[in-house]
Specification:
MetI-like fold; 0% strand; globular; mainly alpha; 373 residues
Length: 373
């Protein structure tokens, strides 16, 4: 009878090979998973080594960070003129808003962040209160603080607004208005009532058929010609209305795609439970539809944020417009001033757009919208 060996203790756990751990594993899976992937990785690294040194030298090593005027940026071999950004930074943010009243812009921004942050971060706070604050209370407070005229606040005309302030006002208003309008238009386009469906289709196709620059031009120049004598709208208000209506038409098509992706069985199940049409849409259909089209919704938001630069054609100086207007300052004329200003504006826009993109990816993963298993 042969003896049998029975192990009384677990064998020691062996670590995987070093090539399967940490950075090496990540490189194998993402950079060198195939010969084509490896070839593109090597080519990309080669191009990066060619482009990075001159960019780094221009932006940091040869750059000028301080100075009283453009004379510090006119010397030979000078890189980025960050002194220009430092000197004009306040104007880039607030435009021509009076210096003594700029605290009102800061308070408005803090109120907006305080109302929006709890909605973006997962928590157990009663979100309906924050939604009500942002939709009903915050617009009124923002108007009172920014424009003034009440509560002892000095009136600041919208013609004095500018810079990043105008960019955010136009973008936030367009984003906040376009989503609910887009939802109603998408539902109207799928409605079984002919009048509502035809009106929704006409509205969507009309606004999608013209460029935004034409909408802004018509709102600023042509609209006053059709108003009764003595009646006029603020130029910024006209731009806000035009941007919101234009963006809502595109948003409606994104939402309509999400509604089409919801299985018919969901509609039938909701009807079988005796839910009314508003209940079916708000509790069953729209949550699924909007979750599916999160990438498309955020893509519209990003496009709208960048399109705010077009308000310059009607005399509103957003961030890019105020940067361009400062190029003509004789004290800061230099070969590097315009390039540095455009790089600064591009970086600010990239920060906002990249943040929206990353938050979109976070929400997709959290809600598990990906269909892959």
């Amino acid at each position: 009878m042969s003896d049998h060996f029975v192990r009384t203790q677990s064998s020691p756990t062996l670590l995987p090979p070093s090539s399967r751990l940490g950075v090496l594993q990540w490189m194998r899976e993402n950079l060198f998973s195939s010969w084509a992937n490896g070839l593109f990785t090597v080519a990309g690294l080669y191009l990066l080594t060619l482009a990075f040194p001159p960019i780094f030298n221009w932006a940091f090593l040869s750059a000028v960070f301080t100075g009283q005027d453009g004379s510090v940026c006119r010397a030979d071999g000078v890189g980025a003129c960050w002194a220009f950004i430092d000197a004009k930074f306040n104007q880039f943010v607030y435009g021509r808003y009076p210096a003594g009243e700029q605290w009102r812009v800061d308070v408005t921004a803090l109120l907006g962040i305080a109302g929006l942050a709890p909605l973006l971060v997962p928590n157990r706070l009663p979100k309906q209160w924050f939604v009500g604050f942002l939709l009903l209370v915050f617009p009124f407070l923002a108007f009172v603080l920014l424009y003034g005229g009440t509560a002892g606040l000095v009136v600041v005309e919208t013609s004095d607004w500018g810079g990043l302030m105008v960019t955010l006002v136009v973008a936030v208003t367009g984003i906040a208005a376009s989503l609910p309008l887009g939802v109603f238009l998408a539902l109207g386009r799928r409605s079984k009532m002919p009048v509502i469906r035809i009106l929704s289709i006409m509205f969507i196709e009309l606004w999608r058929g013209v460029p935004l620059i034409t909408v802004l031009f018509m709102a600023s120049v042509m609209l006053p010609l059709f108003l009764p004598e003595g009646m006029s709208f603020d130029k910024l208000l006209r731009a806000l209305i035009g941007v919101a209506l234009f963006s809502s038409a595109y948003m409606a098509e994104v939402v309509r795609g999400g509604l089409a992706s919801v299985p018919v069985g969901q509609y039938e199940a909701a009807k079988a439970l005796g839910l009314t049409y508003p209940q079916m849409m708000s509790r069953i259909v729209l949550p699924q539809a909007l979750t599916t089209v999160i990438p498309g919704i955020v893509n519209n938001f990003i496009g709208l944020f960048k399109d705010t630069t077009l308000v310059l054609v009607i005399g509103l100086f957003d961030l890019l417009g105020i940067v361009q207007s400062n190029f003509t300052d004789p004290a800061w004329i230099s070969p590097q001033t315009s390039t540095t200003g455009y790089v600064f504006a591009a970086f600010v826009f990239w920060i906002f757009c990249f943040s929206m993109s990353r938050y979109s990816i976070y929400m997709e993963r959290r809600l598990e919208t990906d269909t892959q298993r």
